[in-house]
Write a structure and sequence with these properties.
By secondary structure, this protein is mainly α. It has one domain. The radius of gyration is 19 Å and the shape is elongated.
Length: 223
């Protein structure tokens, strides 16, 4: 804990670092607002549901706990894991914001309606805007953890945790008939593209993300 606090003190003294984190936070806030508006638009424009080769062959399973509480647990775990190493905050924050922003565009383009039978979700739940509505394509539950897996690919522990979470959530939304199969499958391909864009758009943050521990090499980042 003392080492974590020491690293934060060193990094937060750097003007460039503070600005980069603040930019990431603002970017996340804006992307979430746009996502909310896009979700409402998708709800209003939703049409009838369509047949799905996967959903048509599996009964509905109650996945409320996994989709709601499981996601919250993963979010808290990931947040705590990232802030242990402050140099990873800017890129992780901006990449997630880019993910939400691009997904918002996709859900405004696709107006499929919900399946007639699907898993019950607590309507007053704290994550309801992330789980309900007609914002199907592509699956955020599947894509967001996969994005974290790509970001932390060289970290075996975090990579495996995030890949497992992505697969669990992907299977859960299908069993609950909360997403079409194409939403889940496409999430992996689109998310990889978003990750590639993030590395180009936020190149300096990506470089900082992989920088050696500031307490080990005695370096202070420029800025």
């Amino acid at each position: 804990m003392k080492e974590i606090i020491k690293k934060h003190k060193i990094y937060w003294k750097q003007k460039g670092f503070s600005y980069s984190v603040l930019t990431g936070i603002i970017f996340i806030a804006v992307s979430l607002i746009i996502n909310h508006l896009a979700s409402n638009y998708a709800d209003r424009m939703a049409s009838a549901y369509v047949k799905d080769i996967v959903l048509d062959n599996f009964p509905v399973v109650n996945v409320n706990f996994i989709v709601n509480d499981g996601l919250l647990i993963y979010i808290i775990f990931t947040f705590l894991y990232i802030i242990r190493d402050p140099k990873k905050i800017p890129f992780a924050a901006k990449s997630f914001a880019l993910f939400v922003l691009i997904r918002s565009v996709f859900i405004m383009l696709t107006h499929l309606g919900p399946m007639p039978l699907h898993s019950f979700l607590e309507q007053d739940g704290y994550l309801i805007r992330l789980n309900a509505g007609s914002d199907y394509f592509f699956s955020g539950h599947t894509g967001a953890p996969f994005l974290m897996a790509l970001i932390f690919w060289n970290n075996k522990f975090m990579r495996n945790v995030s890949l497992t979470a992505s697969l669990i959530f992907g299977v859960a939304v299908l069993l609950g008939h909360l997403h079409y199969s194409i939403d889940v499958l496409a999430a992996f391909f689109i998310t990889y593209s978003i990750f590639s864009l993030a590395k180009k758009f936020f190149a300096s943050d990506w470089k900082l993300f992989h920088k050696k521990n500031i307490l080990e090499n005695k370096e202070v980042m420029a800025g």
